[in-house]
Design a protein that fits this description.
- By secondary structure, this protein is an alpha/beta fold.
- It has two domains: about 1-50 and about 370-424, Urease, subunit C, domain 1; about 55-365, Metal-dependent hydrolases (TIM Barrel, Alpha-Beta Barrel).
- The protein contains twelve helices and 16 strands.
- The chain has helices at about 80-90, 95-110, 130-140, 165-175, 190-210, 230-245, 260-275, 305-310, 330-340, 350-365, 390-395, 415-420; strands at about 1-10, 15-25, 25-30, 40-45, 50, 55-60, 115-125, 150-155, 180-185, 215-220, 250-255, 280, 315, 380-385, 400-405, 405-410.
- Strands 6-7-8-9-10-11-12-13 form an eight-stranded parallel beta sheet. It has a four-stranded mixed beta sheet with strand order 3-2-1-4, with no helix packed on it.
- α5 crosses α6 (about 230-245).
- The longest helix has 19 residues, at about 190-210.
- The protein starts with a strand and ends with a helix.
- The model has no long low-confidence stretch (mean pLDDT about 95).
- It binds zinc ion (ZN).
- Zinc ion binds next to loops.
């Protein structure tokens, strides 16, 4: 007798119905015609079984700050600098209780949408101190049975006013933070190419001293032109190679790669690939190009070129109903569909790739161990109401069962469009 058996599931390669058996939080059987008796049995009814969705870049401490009943941007903006100011104004009013309450609700939403691991960016700086971190640490512990949370120290006010800020960061890691963050665009002292490099070097030195991974907000702008030496990802990749830090960096956004000419872009992608850097695209279509009068730029990185070169590319929600983005549901199938439109990814194979990007690729970016659907893997998985990966994206399939470490943590039932139409 095992803890849980899922019958009639399909795994990514096609049509064969499989049985998946779980015991003590691990996958102990997967294949056709397996005989397992389960304390609990679920019928997948021909639905696709995927490993749990991995939200690889999300600002959990500031999520859901807007009016839930009337979502939308309270006032318009034109430039990213205005968004930064709006966040600064709003966050000063946060209390620890308020952060805990919103983060808990956000994780409930994430779990409902099949997310079993989430990398949270968390403000740590001289103004807010460790308040956001202490709140997220408490929420992480309370919600551990639902979602595994990695915490990134996000330098919302920069890093170069050291040593005070760096002391704060050392304390953050002592308390339980996991990943060093980096955001030169928010560092008032990171002026010019040299200032940006000093910011990256400071973050990298601390990450190496503490033996933690580095998660960069990188190349967030959209200049008219950009050279190879101006790209933050290229500099960080070169440094990773120089100091022996290959495979330990993720870079979010990377919008400026879209500004680069073909030769610069190809060389940049080569550097990113060689450094084993993962790129996390946010379907970031809302933030940039607001004043463009024609040929409106949307700031999406070169997703297809990066994938083609063999770079590990994932996508993530980034901001969910906060001062930056008033939209979002922590639903990676929804973000994937937006990326399908934005990055021109609509073939069957490309839609299949999108599902991989928010599961296996994102898990690789977060360096998760025991992730997948093979024997011995941690039983974090989702049963979808769709038979194939591309159908999951196009149909925006419901997540019928969400299982975290072998426990059923969410059950959802959607009334399909076909049912609605047939009832008319
Ligand atoms: Zn971010």
């Amino acid at each position: 007798m095992v803890d849980l058996v899922i019958r009639n599931g399909v795994i990514s390669d096609g049509t064969r119905r499989v049985v998946l058996a779980i015991d003590r939080g691990r996958i102990v059987g997967v294949g056709a015609d397996l005989e397992f008796e389960g304390a609990r049995v679920l019928d997948a009814d021909g639905g696709l079984i995927v490993p749990g969705f991995v939200e690889s870049h999300m600002h959990l401490d500031v999520a859901l700050m807007n009016d839930g009943k009337r979502p939308g941007r309270p006032r318009p903006f034109e430039t990213p600098a205005e968004l930064n100011r709006m966040m600064d104004e709003r966050r000063l009013a946060f209390t620890r209780e308020d952060i805990e309450q919103r983060a808990t609700r956000a994780l409930a939403l994430a779990s409902r949408h099949g997310i079993t691991t989430l990398r949270a960016q968390c403000h740590v700086d001289a103004t807010v101190g460790l308040k956001h971190l202490e709140a997220l640490l408490a929420v992480r512990q309370a919600q551990a049975e639902r979602v595994t949370v990695q915490i990134v120290c996000f330098p919302h006010q920069g890093l170069l006013d050291q040593p005070r800020t760096l002391d704060l960061y050392r304390e953050a890691f002592r308390l339980g933070a996991d990943i060093m963050g980096c955001a030169s665009n928010l560092d008032p002292r990171a002026v010019g190419v040299e200032g940006v490099r000093r910011h990256i070097d400071t973050a990298l030195e601390l990450a190496m001293a503490l033996d933690v991974d580095l998660d960069l907000h990188a190349d967030l702008g959209l200049p008219q032109q950009v050279t190879l030496d101006e790209l933050e990802t290229v500099y960080a990749a070169r440094r990773a190679l120089e100091v022996g830090y290959v495979g330990r960096m993720t870079a979010g956004h990377v919008c400026a790669l879209d500004s680069a000419g073909p030769a610069v872009a190809a060389a940049a992608i080569e550097a990113i690939h060689t450094a084993g850097m993962s790129v996390i695209s946010q379907p970031d279509l809302y933030r940039l190009g607001r004043t463009d009068q024609r040929g409106v730029r949307r700031g999406l990185t070169r997703v297809k070129a990066l994938l083609k070169a063999g770079v590990n590319v994932a996508f993530a929600s980034n901001n969910v109903r906060d001062a930056y983005r008033p939209l979002g549901n922590l639903n990676l199938l929804e973000e994937g569909l937006i990326l399908a439109y934005g990055a021109h990814m609509d073939s069957v194979a490309e839609l299949d790739t999108l599902l991989q990007m928010c599961t296996t690729n994102a898990a690789r970016a977060l360096r998760l161990e025991g992730y997948g659907l093979t024997l011995g893997d941690r039983a974090d998985l989702v049963v979808l109401d769709a038979p194939t990966p591309s159908a999951a994206l196009v149909d925006q399939a419901e997540k019928r069962f969400v299982i975290k470490e072998g426990r059923l943590v969410a059950t959802n039932r959607r009334v399909s469009e076909a049912t609605v139409l047939s009832a008319l």
